[in-house]
Amino acid sequence: MARVLKSRYFKNRYFLEASIGFRPSFIWRNILHGREALKSGMLRTIGSGEQTNVWTSNWLLDDELRPPMYRQNTCGQASETICHVLFLCPTTVEAWRLARIEPPPTGFSTTSSFLNLHYLVAGTKKQSWRQSNIKSFPWIVWNLWKGRNALMFEKTRISASSMVTKALEEAEIWNKGGSSGSTSYCSKYMD
Ligand SMILES: [Zn+2]
């Protein structure tokens, strides 16, 4: 069983791969670090033969999993994949709307977080999106994820507007840290 779960996990590394094309920042590193930590926790739990946390392992395996036997949920919908948490949950949809970041014409993918992140990365280069908050999207993703964790583990519900406000503030602080808008993370420390 551990081997099956492990191979399924490694087939589903879209989220990790999606970040590679994007300029590295501490946001991405935090997200990826969190995923690695969760992954090692999951594998350790399975390896030791303790009862596997159904909810956690299903989340990590993400995209094409059947519904688990039980699930603590944030919105009452049947499944909570990465796509659901970051793009499809009603609170999430509201957050993207408040940030004036338009979903694709046919809606965000329900199965591929890679496609959804790719769409957002592409949006950062679109001239027609200049009035949106698209360049803050990594901070929005990060705050959606933190909001979901606050609800899961602390039973604290954070509103879409609070998450967006926080994300935009954090993005602004980050952008002010550079000598120009296009200064990369690394070059800031080379100056
Ligand atoms: Zn939901």
From TrEMBL:
<protein>
    <recommendedName>
        <fullName>Reverse transcriptase zinc-binding domain-containing protein</fullName>
    </recommendedName>
</protein>
